[in-house]
Structure formats: C-alpha cells, structure tokens
Design goal:
Helices cover 36% and strands 20% of the residues. With 488 residues, it is an alpha/beta fold.
C-alpha cells in the first residue's frame, strides 16, 4: 500500500509535541510491514536540519494556485532517520515558514491552509497516487476538503483519507475569507452546518470540523478519549459533529518507539538495565542526583517531565512538588510553559527552592536530561485535566518508573491502579486517581510513597510488572492498516 502522511510535525526534525512522535513512529511501523510511506512537511527555517540526510531538490517549480494568482514553491526531499520526507518551501512575501518557530502567529490558519493546498498540488503535479492520505490535527483539516472538492476532479480520485485528531482543543477556527485564497470559492456552500461552519462561532470556519466531515475515517489517539470527545466537554464543541459521523470514528492508542525509548540500549543514560537487571537502574538514580546537585539520600525521586499548562494539571504539579518534599521524597521537574505567567511562576518557584537539596526544577527542555530522569526517578506524576493519549506514562513504564496518573484519556487505557483495578494483581502497573483536587493527588502520592518505604519488594514487583507491558507501534500499526483496508 502506498501511504502519504501530511503533517505539520515529524520527530526529530520538526517537533513541538507528541504529534511529531506519532507521525515518525507510525510511518516507521507501516514501512516495516512492507508499505511504501512518504511524509510531507513544511520546510521551516527552525527545523533540525542536522537530522536530515541528503537534502536535495525534488520538484523545482511547483506553482500552487492561491488568491488571484499562484505561489511558486520548491519541494525538497531528504531522509529523516530512514523516513522519506518531502519539505515544501513557498517563495512569497507571506514568508509562511521562515519565522523562527513553528506556531503562534495570527495567520496560522492561512499558513497551514496553504500547506494543505500545496501538499495536494505536489501530489497531483508529481503524478503521485497514494492509496491513503493520512493527515493530522487542525493544520491539515483542509486536506480532505480540498481533495474531494477540487483535486479528485483533477485526477486524484483513488486516494482515501484517514484523519487523526491529536488534540481537540486546537481546531483551526478562522474567518470565511480564507476560502477564496484556497479556491474553495462558494462561501455559502462551505460555511454550512453540515460542512465547515463552526458549531459555536456562527461566523467562523472550523478546519478540524472540515477534516471530520470530509475524511473517510477519523481517529483520535486512545479509545477512552474517543468517548470523552463525543460525550464530554473534551470535544470542545465538536460533539455533535462526532456523533453525526460516529460510524467512521474511533480511538487508536498511540504507540511508543522502543528503538528510542529502551533502557537496555539507551545511549543517553550511563547505566543500562532490564527488568531482570533492575539494580542497574539505581546507578542512573545516583547519576541524576549528581547532575542536579541533589543529595544522595534514602528517598524516592518523584518526577514530572512535560509541558506546564492547564491541560497538564499545572496546579496539581505545583502542589505535588511541595507534598513530595514534605513527605520524605525528592522532586525533579523538567518542562516549560507556552504561557508567560505559568513560566514566570515556575521560575519564581525555582528560585524559592534553589537551596533545597531534595528538589530541582529545570525550566526548559533537554532531551538527554529527559532520558536520565526517566531512568533515574522512582515515580512520575501526570495529573492531567485531559490527556488524549500521553507518551510520558508509556516511557515511564519502559524505564521502570512508576506512573501516578489521573483517570482521563489514554492514561486510563494504559495505567492500572495497584490497589483499585479490575485487572489481575500481576497486571497492575501504577497509581490512578480521579478528582482534580489537592486531596486526591495527596492521597495517591501517599499510597505510592508509603509502598516505596514500607514494602520495597512490592514496589519493585510493581516496577517489573510495568516494564512487562508492550505499547510499541506493532498493535496500533495493524489497527491503522485495518482502517486503511476498510476505506479502500
């Protein structure tokens, strides 16, 4: 099968979040299974060009119809850790992808509408006829719209679209003026409740809604989150649309790339280990303390790795730091916030706790340190308000770091509470709590810390049970292939 991924990110060359890991990991799994896979990305100026091998021009003069004329593009080709990637570079005064960061501009909707149009124009002009076009999140929500309203009439009538939603919170809500730029000229036709009209802003278009309506199949990144998106406020206004299209909507759990996240071979940690050689993990714990100037003490290390924002339960993360320190545990944090107020708050907190030998807050992101934290910590907290899938808990399991998670989204699908699960005792792998309040996170942290101190053998058993779980792309890759076959 010939599959083309169209996305705004792909690890490690252009990565903001989990979307990038999914595009890379799923593409790799599909290739391993014998499919031909290509990825189309914007050519950002801020990409990690050191991760692209043999970057060269693949299509010199791509003219993309836009507004009253056309925008000239160059399409580049390069290999990203074995994945075949095309990079679209527009040459215009709009300067769409030369802005020193990926997102966060007033014209983001216009930028990615153009990228969607240019991707299809490239497939058409280069005579590529994929069986499946798999596009991701709001940035490529217009791809199926453009395909079925324009490009199928120009020769692309065999391609089918799978559309994956990684985060319902960001939907690409914009004005109807964008339609004329993309050559979707009938505003009254597209600005309709059954097509692209936003469900809560009557004068606006919604890219994500367009993706849902026009795609042959829609997925989100865990079975639990699929239900949450349809039946709770986590659908962010798209609940009715999802209900209307429920027969082509489901959740497929993200996988984890065990070539990258594997403590047995990880080049970024000093001591390698498995469930059998678990004692070696504690060499990493000592190394983590040395690196972050924590004292070498008989205490568990609790960690947080990730974004600091409302979605991630930032108020509970903050509270968890102090609860850990007051209850004979150490705490390590690695993360930053896209919101200045939250970032400033954690910088201030860092200064307040600077002299505490049981705590280190690293505001920012460092890949090497992230690996060392996963390998060196005893537990990791994820008190998310919502979590479509989550990769942090999957990485933690692999590294023998016990996850403490809130019962939402993919966290429910992957973590099973040691004390209160319907799973057999031997299949439980972490701690889960329900309410998003201080009492709930204190209670669950108390259970984990108490087990670490009072029953170390039981804690090590819990670690080993977690390490036995396999959340690789193998199963999820097959699920996607089943979907592709279904819509062919």
């Amino acid at each position: 099968m010939y599959i083309v991924m169209i996305a705004s990110e792909c690890a490690p060359v252009s990565k903001v979040g989990g979307l990038a890991d999914v595009v890379y990991g799923l593409s790799r799994e599909l290739e391993i299974r014998g499919n031909e896979v290509e990825i189309i990305l914007p050519k950002y100026d801020c990409m990690r060009y050191d991760h692209i091998w043999d970057l060269n021009v693949a299509y010199q003069d791509l003219l993309v119809p836009w507004d009253d004329g056309a925008i000239h593009c160059t399409v580049w080709f390069g290999s990203v850790q074995g994945r075949k990637c095309f990079f679209i570079e527009p040459h215009s005064n709009n300067n769409f992808f030369h802005r020193e960061r990926y997102y966060g501009f007033p014209d983001d909707a216009m930028r990615f509408a153009f990228f969607s149009k240019a991707s299809l124009e490239f497939l058409l002009k280069s005579n590529r006829h994929p069986n499946i076009i798999h596009c991701h999140d709001w940035q490529t929500g217009l791809v199926p719209v453009l395909l079925y309203e324009i490009y199928q009439h120009q020769g692309m009538h065999h391609s089918r679209v799978c559309y994956t939603i990684h985060n319902f919170r960001y939907q690409g809500i914009t004005g109807i003026d964008i339609l004329s730029a993309t050559k979707l000229d009938r505003a009254e036709y597209y600005h309709h409740p059954d097509r692209l009209k936003d469900n809560t802003h009557p004068s606006a278009l919604n890219f994500m809604k367009g993706g849902i309506v026009y795609s042959n199949f829609v997925t989100t990144v865990s079975p639990k989150h699929a239900g949450e998106a349809r039946h709770t406020d986590q659908g962010y206004g798209l609940n009715d649309t999802l209900h209307k299209h429920q027969n082509k909507f489901c959740g497929v759990l993200n996988g984890l790339d065990y070539e990258v996240w594997n403590p047995e071979i990880d080049p970024l940690i000093p001591y390698h280990y498995t469930a059998v050689t678990l004692d070696n993990k504690y060499g990493n714990k000592s190394a983590l303390r040395d690196r972050l100037l924590l004292r070498q003490a008989f205490k568990p290390i609790i960690a947080y790795v990730g974004r600091l924002d409302v979605q991630k339960g930032v108020h509970l993360i903050r509270h968890g730091i102090f609860y850990a320190l007051q209850n004979e545990a150490q705490f390590v944090l690695l993360g930053s916030s896209p919101e200045a107020s939250i970032n400033n708050d954690f910088w201030q907190l860092k200064h307040e706790l600077n002299d505490n030998e049981d705590c280190h807050l690293e505001i920012g992101f460092n890949e090497e340190l992230a690996h060392l934290i996963y390998a060196g910590a005893d537990m990791i907290i994820m008190p998310s308000m919502y979590e479509p899938c989550g990769l942090t808990q999957l990485i933690a399991l692999r590294y023998g770091t016990v996850p403490i998670v809130r019962s939402v989204g993919g966290l429910v699908d992957t973590i099973f509470d040691r004390d209160n699960s319907s799973k057999p005792l031997t299949a439980r792998n972490g701690y889960v709590f329900d309410e998003a309040d201080y009492t709930a996170i204190e209670t669950v942290m108390h259970r984990a810390i108490s087990l670490w101190y009072a029953y170390p053998d039981q804690f090590r058993k819990l670690i080993r049970q977690g390490m036995q779980y396999n959340y690789s792309w193998h199963r999820s890759g097959q699920h996607y292939l089943d979907i592709y076959e279904h819509i062919q």
